[in-house]
Amino acid sequence: MSHGEGDDQASCACARVQSGLQATLRPGYWIPGLRNLHAKEETWDIETSPDDAFSNIASIVQRFEKEKKWHVRKVDKEKRFIQLFVYTKLNWLDVVEIRLRQQEEWTLARVVSFSSGLFPVCCPLSPFLSAL
Predict the structure, then answer these.
(1) What is the pTM of this model?
(2) Residues 98-130, buried b or exposed e (16+ Cβ, 10 A)?
(3) Of 25, 51, 70, 94, which is least surrounded by CB within 10 A?
(4) Per-residue confidence (pLDDT) for residue 77, from 0 to 100
(5) Could you tell me the maximum CA-CA distance found in the chain, to the nearest angstrom?
């Protein structure tokens, strides 16, 4: 793959440096009209314990990371939280967050995915430009 096609998750150094800040600020999530177009939320009922569900999901997302589909940003077993950075071919940063919660005899997974900004993270100062 050539530059700009997501060959190493974020194909430019600027994208790798700015991703954490843009994911934290989430300027693409502030504007309801845009957010609704570029965000998705699902809940999954999983018929196993939260610990087993977490281990299985973490294993799957880490396997895809090795295939360079996304970057596993955070895995917090205690909070049962996983955060993924998914880079498009043009270095737009999408964030996927998975939270698991114990229900009576099963696990509820809340999965949220959204576009983090108004500009690709390979653009210098994209987190700040997206916030304007």
Answers:
(1) 0.79
(2) bbbeeeeeebebebbbbbbbbbbbbbeebbeeb
(3) 51
(4) 94
(5) 49
